[in-house]
Design brief:
The chain is α+β, with helices and mostly antiparallel strands. The chain is built from 16 helices and 16 strands. Helices cover 52% and strands 19% of the residues.
């Protein structure tokens, strides 16, 4: 006893130490969970007990009502079958057949068989529950030719015939294997003696057999689908199954003592019976068409009260919801106290994501707020330093761009001035005037008021002035063509003096081995949001791979420097958004493609 007490005290101390080590937030949460669980558990148990009583009463009442309605539905269908048989016996084809039966005339058998096809088809059409109909007469059997008659089995030698003699007014036979037609499927049969015209005298040796498949009776009993654990069965007064398609106990369930015991009960429509370790609620109602038939509904008491499981689930859900609410409330209480610190932590995480514009704001002046204000001063200094670095980098980039642009100022100026001088000495004043005007306009556009980006229209004007000068310097050497697929592209901005160096390469290097026949084609198009510039010539070509390797680093000589300069400037302006590609083969001309973001002038 002392050992057990000591162990209990030791365990209690361990639990206490663990409890003291947890945070206040966790202790509040634990207290709320215990309190809410006890209160909700008690309320749920009480609610469950009340709901169980109500659901049980409603389930019993619903079961009785369903059995009664099922019995009415079955009687209605069986009456419809009987009416179909009466309609058949009132048909003209049946009347003619009966005339030959009474006179024992067998020669017209096939005529009557053919005439009765419509009547038989109409009966099965009006009552889909009917599987087949057989008219048994001394002159032969009449049936639908869509069915296959089992010729080896005669109705007069069957058990159905023996039972019909005991019940001459017609009767319903319980489920059995159909021996009259092929297939040997289980059917329920309605047998009635044939009658003749008024006064509708029954004929002893003429019978009409209507077969209904057992499964259809079963579907009729359980019309609308099975409810959980509830099935309806058709039995006779001896407790034997009329329909065995859904017979779960294979005849072992003691229906006869159940019905007998239920008949002694105060309420004859429902009765509890224990079988196989389970308690079943048995409801039954007699058929009005066949009084010996009883429609019985059987359902396990546990399954009958299955709705209580929903109440249990709802109770559990309510407990879970309140536990979650408890967790939220406890979190809210602790969050109110630690809100400033959590806020500062979130700001620091945003700084880790490079969001440097964050500012800590607080109405409090406590220690955490002071830390937050120090954080603001630190972020202000960091932003100032970053802004200074960005400004210096921007100035550096602009200086580099302008230096590169300045390097692309037309170095053809000297040759152009010499050509102008020679033409002036030779008295070609018109050419001199045009060249001077073109050169002036080129420099005007090249200056562009200090702007680094100019519209495509201005760049084209600069290039055309260059072409005009070159065509005066090299008369008859080349022709050019400019194609703009979309006039809206003329307002797109691009770095100035970006086209002239490429064209100059075509003239200076591509056409260096010829005096006439040169051609330059320049195309401007829009491609996936980019301005696509394609410049081709039919000059002596180039080694594309060697030129592409030269674009990676600046060449040591002026040769190839123009393309490197253009590529470098595009990278400074647009980064990876702009691209440049050079193609061509020796002796087959060259091609230069530029892709520049299509930004229109605002």
């Amino acid at each position: 006893m002392n050992t057990f007490t000591a162990y209990g005290r030791q365990l209690g101390r361990q639990i206490a130490r663990r409890y003291y080590r947890i945070s206040i937030k966790q202790r509040i949460l634990f207290s709320f969970i215990v309190l809410i669980t006890l209160s909700i558990g008690a309320m749920g148990s009480f609610s469950y007990w009340i709901a169980a009583q109500e659901i049980e009463d409603n389930a019993y009442a619903g079961s009785r009502e369903t059995v009664s309605k099922t019995a009415q539905l079955l009687d209605s269908r069986l009456n419809d079958v009987a009416l179909s048989v009466q309609s058949l016996m009132l048909s003209d084809a049946y009347r003619k057949m009966m005339v030959d039966v009474l006179s024992h005339e067998v020669s017209n058998y096939y005529v009557h068989l053919s005439d009765l096809q419509y009547v038989l088809s109409q009966a099965t059409f009006n009552q889909p529950i009917i599987e087949n109909v057989l008219i048994v007469t001394p002159i032969g059997d009449f049936y639908s030719t869509t069915q296959i008659r089992a010729q080896d089995n005669s109705f007069y030698g069957s058990e159905l015939y023996d039972l019909s003699k005991e019940q001459p007014g017609g009767y319903w036979a319980k489920g059995h294997y159909d021996r009259l037609f092929t297939g040997s499927q289980r059917v329920v049969s309605f047998i009635v003696r044939g009658i003749y015209e008024y006064p509708y005298t029954p004929i002893n040796n003429v019978f009409i057999v209507v077969n209904i498949r057992e499964s259809r009776i079963d579907e009729l009993l359980n019309k609308g689908g099975e409810q959980a654990g509830r099935n309806y069965y058709l039995v006779n007064g001896e407790g034997e199954a009329v329909v065995e398609s859904r017979w779960p106990f294979r005849g072992r369930f003691p229906w006869k003592p159940v019905l007998a015991e239920a008949g002694k009960a105060a309420d004859p429509q429902d009765h509890y019976y224990s079988y196989g370790g389970k308690e079943y609620l048995v409801n039954y109602a007699s058929s009005a068409v066949s009084p010996d038939w009883i429609i019985s509904g059987m359902q396990s008491r546990d399954q009958l009260l299955g709705k209580l499981q929903r109440v249990q689930r709802i109770t559990i859900y309510v407990i879970v919801v309140f536990l979650l609410a408890t967790w939220l409330i406890s979190n809210k209480l602790t969050s109110v106290l630690l809100k400033p610190l959590f806020k500062l932590r979130r700001l620091m995480r945003r700084v880790e994501e490079n969001q440097l514009s964050v500012v800590y704001e607080s109405r409090y002046e406590d220690e955490i707020a002071q830390v937050g204000f120090q954080f603001n001063r630190m972020m202000s200094e960091i932003n100032t330093l970053i802004a200074d670095v960005k400004a210096k980098e921007k100035d550096k980039r602009h200086a580099e761009i302008r230096a590169l642009t300045a390097q692309m100022e037309p170095h053809f100026l000297y040759n152009t001035l010499n050509t102008i001088y020679c033409k002036s000495v030779m008295g070609e004043n018109d050419d001199v005037n045009e060249m001077i005007l073109s050169l002036s306009q080129m420099f005007q556009i090249g200056l562009s008021g200090g702007k680094d980006l100019i519209p495509l229209a201005d760049e084209l004007s600069h290039m055309r002035q260059y072409f005009a000068i070159q065509q005066k310097c090299y008369e008859g050497l080349f022709e050019y063509k400019v194609t703009v697929e979309d006039e809206a592209l003329l307002s797109c901005l691009l770095p100035k003096i970006i086209l002239q160096p490429v064209v100059e390469n075509s003239i200076k290097h591509g056409f260096s081995d010829r005096t006439i026949g040169g051609r330059i084609d320049i195309t401007f198009s829009r491609e996936q949001g980019l301005l696509h510039i394609c410049i081709t010539d039919n000059g002596r070509g180039l080694d594309a791979e060697q030129v592409k390797q030269g674009l990676v680093r600046a060449p040591q000589s002026r040769k190839g420097y123009a393309l490197f300069n253009i590529r470098h400037r595009l990278a400074l302006y647009y980064g990876d958004e702009a691209r440049m590609d050079v193609g061509g083969e020796p002796g087959k001309g060259s091609r230069t493609d530029l892709w520049i973001p299509a930004e229109e002038e605002s």
